Amino acid sequence: MKDALKPATDWELASMIAGFAARNQPVEIAGYGTKKRVGRPMQTAATISTQSMRGITLYEPTELVMSARTGTPLAQVEAELAANSQMLAFEPIDLGIAVGAAPGMQSIGGIFAANLSGARRVVAGAARDHLIGAKGVNGRSEIFKSGGRVVKNVTGYDVARGLCGSWGTLAVMTEVTFKVLPWPEAATTLVYAGLPDDIAVELLCTAMGTPYEVSASGHMREALARRLDIAALAGAGGALTMLRIENFSKSVAYRKERIKDALKAYGDPIELEYADTLELWNALRQLKMLSDQSTCLWRVSTSPRNGPAVVAAIERHMQIEAYYDWSGGLVWIEVPASADAGASDVRRAVAVNGGHATLIRAEPQVRASVEVFQPQSPVLERLTRGIKAAFDPPGLLNPGRMYAGI
Amino acid sequence: MTHIALPEPDRSIVARRDEIAADLAALIGADAVISDEDGRRTFETDALTAYRRMPLAVVLPRSTEDVAKVMRYCYDAGIKIVPRGAGTSLCGGALPAEDAIVIGVSKMNRVLEIDFAGRTARVETGITNLAISGAVGEQGYFYAPDPSSQLACTLAGNLAMNSGGAHCLKYGVTTNNVLGLKMVLITGEIVEIGGAHCDSDGLDLMALIVGSEGQFGIVTEATVRIIRAAEGARPMLLGFGSSDDAVRCVSAIIASGIIPVAIEFMDKPAIEVCESFAKAGYPLDVEALLIVEVEGSEEEISDLLGIVTAIATPFNPKNILISDGPVQSAKIWKGRKSAFGAIGRISDYYCMDGTIPLGRLPEVLREISAICTRHGLRVANIFHAGDGNLHPLILYDANDAEQSTRAEIAGAEILTLCVEVGGCLTGEHGVGIEKRDLMRSQFTDTDLALQMRLKSVFDPTWLLNPAKVFPLDAGAPEDRGGQAAA
Q: By 3-state DSSP, what share of chain B in percent is helix, strand and coil, each rounded to 5?
């Protein structure tokens, strides 16, 4: 990122984009470049980074709202929140380890541009659910805004939320405003060992169906559990099925017992203390166990009850490892490296069971030759092209990152 | 109360009513088409009753395919469409036009599939909001967004307006509770977006569609999140000698780390009307009242309400009442949820819906009072205090044209004030026709043009829900589907 252009203001950014437009040169949009290896490879003339647009511009703990310029490091945002016992409830994941980049280096803008959400997403909502306002510059070099700093806002279309998950293809966001929530006073994790995938996901769904607000629910196979290397779970043995309970201390103590009662049929869980709970879920936020760079990595979102069926369908064709999050509805799958990263088998499994698949880790030539994001129907593709043109008619910003020619 | 301009209808289309109605009857059956005057009159307005327009015709399709046939027909013939749920919009979002066909989804109200393991329900969007919770309630689940009109309003309308409700402080608004949509485009094409899984693929079209006020397409089916209800819930009432104290108490509750499921605020005029209607036990000797509801087991609830009581104490509450059981809880909520109706029994009112940063509330309340006094009008304030969403109800006499105009002017001044202090024109009701001409107070021409281009992607010839959301003279022709601004 040494050679990247680093505008400090919206105006500077707009004039840079105008310059690229005048020369008809496409440009790569990045923060700290931690997700450069995700998406389709691009041909661009230069890189614009948000790194010089940083700083928290508004923080009202009693209104549960924060604004930050998009180049602000996530670590700075989370440190400021932690100082007030608050947090980003959607618990953004870090793709660094998974794609062979440095972890802990993300910008807050990149989190929303990629709509990265972690384990608590299943109860608290995704990154996009927490974004309430954005400012940015589009491919017409126009400075625009959408939303604002209040949580309830239906004035005009929800353009800010529409920028989430657009991977810098529509606009360069320069400031984001988002909801924050109190950090829970206490937390514990119940870990059930040695369950096969289908039984484990049944357990997760049963737990999520209790009134006790399980805040995270995941399952991983034995090989991944070994890579995770959490001391408190060293003796567990086999696959790990994990439920996190967060609340005031007294409630955690009460709810934990009720959940154990409801899940008696699945055996006795290991109970993790607060510190071990933090260590475990921090490791999961970093996808620490999805580290085998010799494999390709897929991310599949499906209905929770179909997660194991997707995995079983793919497994008939190749040796894989799987980590289930979101009650079984989000599955991270490591597959052997190959010319198409197993795309045909993965996509067929998803077509049968519903949902979508994204190729997160593969060599650039693979990401150039197979669809990285879920292929779209012709009508949806037409709408996607139209939206791209509404923001970026010359096609300057991250061209082809999500879909060829868009 | 009729100073909002509506475009002149296209007389050549109005003249063809009989022919168009016959075409529609041939497409989807005569029993689904209403073209006689009495039948059409039922649809001439929504909950913004000061504005009325007789629609060209009304169709009430029974399937997505029938919606698609009608939309394709209108697209080919260049006929405008006004989508309609239950017609409960407070901003004129469902106001018909004389040269437009109303497509109502109210007959498409089936529950199609419930998946308790995956915690989703797939429904047709003509279902009422409350009926979704009704379909899953016995198993202990509910659909979270709960607008006050939930007994009547449809999911289709909730999706169009991104509706909220009293309990969205904890559970979010409509956009946060929808996973999948089936939508008919103006071309008659049927698209599916998202599904029974988290986060749709590709660009977040769902984010743009939810809250697009029926201007992108007609959503006929949706997959929504259903949530397992807490073991129990209980509200408490906190009465204060001043609004300032009540607001400071709200900030202190949130700062403590407790997120109640709801924090509702009423001022003295609102308390009096609601109490006389619902006999909920609201105190009458206070200036401001908070309803705070928490969830959990019996013990958790009493612990949390104890903490809230302790937090409130420094703000000198004059009255604290913890609900003693389900009957009293229901009464407390009945008073709040029927507030608009109760006030409607004593006066016509004009309901505002701005949102402000909570910290600015005391000054905004004083200014609202000053604005209404200046215009010689009374106001009752009811709002979702946890998220700063205000509902000032300006009381006026609809039969007095001059007073009606004053009410509209006062309303516009209040909404402009909301924007000035860092808030927005509408928190959950939508823009419709009502706030259309105020959009420039919140957005630049560039912001509006971007939104208009997004509409053009979905509705290239601007046939869907015309003359709403955007000022009639906003945008260049290339931003508005090639049409010149008025």
A: 40, 20, 40
β-sheet bridge partners, residue B184: B190, B218
What does the block give as tokens for B352?
């505002």
From-to residues of CATH 3.30.70.2740 in chain B:
347-437
- The dihedral through the CA atoms of B404, B48, B371, B436 has a sign that is negative
Asked if pLDDT for residue A384 goes beyond 70, the answer is yes
Q: HSE on the CB side for A98, CA within 13 Å?
A: 26
Angstroms from B431 CA to nearest CA on chain A: 6
CB-CB under 8 Å, B455 with A326: no
Q: Compare CB distances from B428 to A63, A85, A152 and report the shortest one's residue.
A: A152
The verdict on a CB contact (< 8 Å) between A152 and B231 is: no
Indicate whether this model's pTM tops 0.90.
Answer: yes
* Nearest chain B alpha carbon to A87: B257
B446 and chain A: CB distance < 8 Å anywhere?
yes
The reported pLDDT for the residue numbered A1 is 60
The CA distance from A360 to B191, in Å, is 26
Distance from CA of A227 to the nearest CA of B (A): 27
| All domains of chain A in start order, with CATH | 1-183+376-406 (3.30.465.10), 186-285 (3.30.70.2190), 292-369 (3.30.70.920)
**Any chain B CB within 8 A of the CB of A39?**
no
Please answer whether residues B282 and B321 qualify as being in contact, where contact means their C-beta atoms are separated by less than 8 angstroms.
Answer: no
pLDDT one-digit tens code per residue, A182-209: 999 999 999 999 999 999 999 999 999 9
Residue A25 tokens read as 């040169």
A344-374 pLDDT, tens digit per residue, is: 999 999 999 999 999 999 999 999 999 999 9
Over range B282-295, report the average pLDDT.
95
Looking at beta carbons, which residues of chain B come within 8 Å of A202?
A: 117
ipTM of the shown complex: 0.97
Nearest to B446 among A142, A164, A387 (CB): A142
Measured between beta carbons, which residues in chain A are less than 8 angstroms from residue B387? 150-152
CATH architecture under which domain B347-437 falls: 2-Layer Sandwich (3.30)
- Cβ-nearest to A209 among B116, B175, B257: B116
pLDDT digits 0-9 by tens, B66-119: 999 999 999 999 999 999 999 999 999 999 999 999 999 999 999 999 999 999
Mean residue pLDDT of chain B comes to 95
Q: What are the C-alpha distances in Å from B361 to residues A57, B24, B287? A: 21, 51, 15
Beta bridge partners of B381: B392
- Report CB contact under 8 Å: A209, B195: no
**In B, residues 277-316, which contact A (CB 8 Å cutoff)?**
296-297, 299-300, 303
Residues of A in contact with B297 (CB under 8 A): 254
- Considering the four listed CATH numbers 3.20.20.70, 3.30.300.20, 3.40.50.10070, 3.30.43.10, the one that applies to the domain covering B11-104 is 3.30.43.10
Q: What CATH number was assigned to the domain covering residues B111-228?
A: 3.30.465.10
Q: Which residue of A has its CA nearest to B419?
A: A148
Range B412-437 average pLDDT: 96
Sign of the torsion angle spanned by Cα atoms A29, B179, A256, A83: positive
The percent of residues above 90 in pLDDT, for chain B, comes to: 86
Task: Assess A348–B contact: CB distance below 8 Å, yes or no.
Answer: no
pLDDT, tens digit, for every residue of B143-172?
A: 999 998 899 999 999 999 999 988 888 999
A155: nearest Cα among B388, B40, B415, B310: B415
Architecture of domain B232-340: 2-Layer Sandwich (3.30)
For B50-64, write each residue's pLDDT tens digit. Answer: 899 999 999 999 999
